[in-house]
Amino acid sequence: MPETILKLQDVAIFQKENLILNHVTLEVKKGEFVYVIGKTGSGKSSFMKTLYGDLPINSGEGSIVDFNLKTLKEKDIPYLRRKLGIVFQDFKLLPDRNINNNLKFVLKATGWKDSVKMDAKIEEVLSKVGMKTKGFKFPHELSGGEQQRIAIARALLNDPELILADEPTGNLDPQTSVEIMKVLQDINENGRTIIMATHDYALILKYPHKTLKCDNSKVFEVIQKAI
User: Fold this and answer.
1) What is the rounded distance in angstroms from the CA atom of residue 84 to the CA atom of residue 3?
2) Which pTM does this prediction carry?
């Protein structure tokens, strides 16, 4: 039996005083690829923020990569995020340094010291996303699709057990979105668990996976045909 990587039981998710999602109960197993869909304002981003510790769980029980989300302390959040790879819609690359130094910055911030090991790791993750020759480029010299590949490489630096991708193709054209999706598919086929929030239904139909929908303050699994 694959191990459980995320489990939520009767969880309520709030933004300040506003209840966004209620009675959320779900389980994600190691190696799964799961979409999270829903209209703008349906709670997709709040759901993702809860998973990486940005929003607390006020009621119910939740665990992710062996961290208890209910009892998660501020000081534990950096350790949780080391076990997660997080990919955002807007890349969040540092504009004042090249790609190698963007990635090195993350490694140093997460406790890496050995520069030879850091260089080897950077080369490894850039190879995985087809960007091995781009390390000396600055973010502004890359296309949106290339920047998103770098963002995915950055998410892989600490060998995360789970990748959370929040609208990773949201700023990209359809062709580039498919290329990014192929990168994520390859990563998933190599055993990595991925939870991806998206509103790109063309991708969901092209690459069918388990799909959760946020609607009317609930999260529930939907069958592809019902999307």
Assistant:
1) 16
2) 0.93
